[in-house]
């Protein structure tokens, strides 16, 4: 009888520990470590702040990291309400980049463009300008330089963008 009681206590304790672990994962670990906040509690507690700038680093999005041919990079960016951000890649002339990005809801202004290497005049060439919730395509760099996206969030709430890309480039990251 006592053995049966101990088994029930052990099972009950295991179930409670498992439930606590799941709650900790959803409410604390996912927002802080992976910038995934399904409940919104992580943002309320300030946990997503830890990962907003690290999201780029964690997925190889900052600096000139080595990558295997055909490897796809991924980064999650936050565009604050009423503000804009720019994400860049260094691409040599005639090299191709494939990309896809999407927002977590709503349309956002985007300017896909490039700036020639070494040019200090402020010149840039736009390849696509639109207001969309997502975009998929590729571009071949017409010149050596810094090529990428400028997103402007005209809404009253922060917006997340997931950017996926592959090709021949060196990541410059957020500008």
Task: Report a brief summary of the structure.
With 175 residues, the chain is α+β, with helices and mostly antiparallel strands. The protein has helices at residues 2-34, 41-44, 49-52, 54-58, and strands at 73-79, 84-91, 96-103, 108-116, 125-132, 134-140, 145-152, 159-167, 170-174.
List the helices and strands and how they pair.
Layout (H helix, E strand, L loop, with lengths): L1 H33 L6 H4 L4 H4 L1 H5 L14 E7 L4 E8 L4 E8 L4 E9 L8 E8 L1 E7 L4 E8 L6 E9 L2 E5 L1
Antiparallel strand pairs: 1-8, 2-7, 2-9, 3-6, 3-8, 4-5, 4-7
Description:
This is Transmembrane anchor protein. Keywords: Membrane, Transmembrane, Transmembrane helix. It comes from Thalassomonas actiniarum. This protein is of the alpha+beta class. It folds into two domains: 2-43, no CATH class; 63-174, GOLD domain (Jelly Rolls), CATH 2.60.120. Helix content is 26%, strand content 39%. It has four helices and nine strands. It has helices spanning 2-34, 41-44, 49-52, 54-58, and strands at residues 73-79, 84-91, 96-103, 108-116, 125-132, 134-140, 145-152, 159-167, 170-174. The strands form two sheets. The chain has a five-stranded antiparallel β-sheet, with no helix packed on it. A hairpin with an 8-residue loop joins strand 4 (108-116) and strand 5 (125-132). The longest helix has 33 residues, at 2-34.
């Amino acid at each position: 009888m006592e053995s049966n009681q101990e088994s029930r206590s052990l099972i009950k304790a295991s179930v409670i520990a498992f439930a606590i672990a799941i709650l900790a994962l959803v409410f604390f670990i996912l927002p802080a470590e992976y910038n995934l906040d399904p409940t919104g509690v992580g943002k309320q507690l300030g946990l997503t702040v830890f990962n907003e700038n690290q999201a780029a680093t964690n997925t190889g999005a900052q600096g000139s990291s080595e990558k295997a041919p055909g490897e796809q990079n991924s980064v999650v960016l936050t565009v604050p309400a009423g503000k804009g951000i720019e994400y860049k890649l260094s691409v040599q002339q005639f090299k191709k980049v494939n990309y896809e990005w999407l927002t977590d809801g709503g349309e956002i202004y985007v300017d896909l463009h490039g700036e020639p290497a070494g040019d200090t005049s402020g010149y840039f060439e736009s390849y696509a300008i639109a207001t969309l919730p997502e975009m998929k395509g590729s571009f071949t760099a017409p010149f050596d330089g810094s090529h990428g996206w400028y997103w402007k969030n005209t809404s009253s709430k922060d917006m997340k963008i997931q950017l996926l890309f592959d090709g021949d480039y060196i990541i410059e990251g957020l500008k």
